Amino acid sequence: MLLRIWNLILKEFIQFFRDWLMTVFILTLPVLQLVLLAHATGSRVSALPAAVLDLDRSSASRQMFAALDARRELDVCHYPSTLTDTRRLIDQGEAALAVIIPAGLAADMADFSRTPRVQVVVDGSSKVPALHALNAARDTLADFAGEYSSAPFPGLAAACGSTADSPVDLRTTIRYNPTLNARFFTVPAQVGFIVYQVTLVVASIGLTRERERGTLEQLMVVPLRRVELFIGKAIPALLVGALNFLLMLAVAVFVFEMPMRGSLPLLFVLTLLFIVAEIGYGMFISVFARTQQQAILFVFVLAMVDMTFSGYLVQVKHLPAVLQAIAQVVPFHHYLAIVRAVMLKGVGADALWPHAAAMMIMGLLVTAVAVHNLSRSLD
Fold first, then answer.
1. CA 143, CA 137: separation in Å to the nearest integer?
2. Rounded distance between C-alpha atoms, residue 350 and residue 20, angstroms
3. Residue range 301-349, pLDDT digits in tens
4. What's the rounded mean pLDDT across residues 277-305?
5. Treating both helix axes as pointing N-terminal to C-terminal, what angle do 331-340 and 264-288 enclose, rounded to 10 degrees?
6. Are strands 97-101 and 119-122 parallel, antiparallel or unpaired?
7. Which of 70, 67, 129, 66 is nearest to 97 (CA)?
8. 350: Cα separation from own chain's centroid
9. CA nearest neighbour of 201 among 232, 230, 244, 231
10. Phi and psi at residue 98, in whole multiples of 5°?
11. Neighbour order of strands in the sheet with 74-78
12. Nearest-angstrom CA–CA distance, 342 and 350
């Protein structure tokens, strides 16, 4: 039995390396995908174009927009003279943010009974730049107001949200990601998605390639049982997926300096469990797909569904209750939780066993269905 399975594994690797296009895709494109995403999410937002409409034209207003221009996130490059021009800059996307300083700002600042008002208009069509621009403007106005929080302009400090006189001494501690780097969230998820993607592709084209090339009938006449055929097709996918995981993890840790606070052996073992579960899905696809193109199409559809329920794009807790329940039977959802917990928080097996159990149960069920349908499709 072991010799028959070993010969089938050798045949799979020979066929795999003969298909040079698929080999290049499996070994190089995932690395490029990870690098591009890490660079895109790790780059800091800076020099967003901003407009300042100064209707007051006072010393205080000039100090205010000078402070805005000094921010790294903002580049005050537009000075419209009317509200119409300001709206045009926002509508045409030439300015991500507009600050409108009304007439009489200096007089309001000099009068304790008045509350100075400054309007900030943000282009919210792109969420991330809008949030950075808005936060930068708020922080700048709050700092500017803080300079006058005690005297002579306490009204401005209150309007801009200064807490210099607050009775609460608030001190914040951010664990696991002190700098709030977006890479800490996206790169581990991308590592998990690449492992998921590569495993599904390799597993789904195993039988499909045999059927498409007409060699499936030859496998049917050799003394090879169905379970042996399944194991012989699954082990190459398992090895390719494990190798791909180690490569992606090395790039994430050593190139992009992602933390690895937990146990690497634990993460590797749970990754193998996830790969085995996804091999079951891939073999299930290969049972019904008649061509490799169909198999890739099924993988694409399944990946879109799993990404929706996994927390890769939207956190599961933000989904409706029904969709949250569906997410619990998606192995990819549990694996992303494991990758982030081990890498970022250093969580151990005592907290991860529910995710591991869910992946194992779903993997066994889908594998059993795949083997059953494999027997029916070959008989």
1. 10
2. 43
3. 888 888 888 888 777 887 888 888 888 999 999 999 999 999 999 899 9
4. 86
5. 160
6. antiparallel
7. 129
8. 26
9. 244
10. -130, 130
11. 74-78, 48-54, 97-101, 119-122
12. 12
CA 349 to chain centre: 24
Closest CA relative to residue 366, chosen from 274, 300, 281, 301: 281
At residue 44, the 3 state secondary structure works out as coil
Q: Write down the H helix ranges in the chain.
A: 2-18, 20-27, 29-42, 59-69, 83-91, 105-110, 127-146, 154-159, 183-213, 216-221, 226-250, 264-288, 292-310, 321-327, 331-340, 349-378
Please give the mean pLDDT across all residues of the chain: 80
Beta bridge partners of 164: none
Token pair 């559809």 is found at 301
Domain boundaries, the chain: 8-41+180-378, 45-159
* Helices (H) then strands (E): counts for the chain: 16, 4
In tens, the pLDDT along 66-76 reads 888 888 888 88
- What is the CATH number that goes with domain 45-159? 3.40.1710.10
Residue type, 179: T
Reported as type and span, the H/E element at residue 9 is helix 2-18
Q: Which residues pair with 74 in a beta bridge?
A: 48
Tokens 């250093």 -> residue: 346
d(CA 43, CA 183): 9
Tokens of 306: 């799993």
pLDDT score of 17: 67
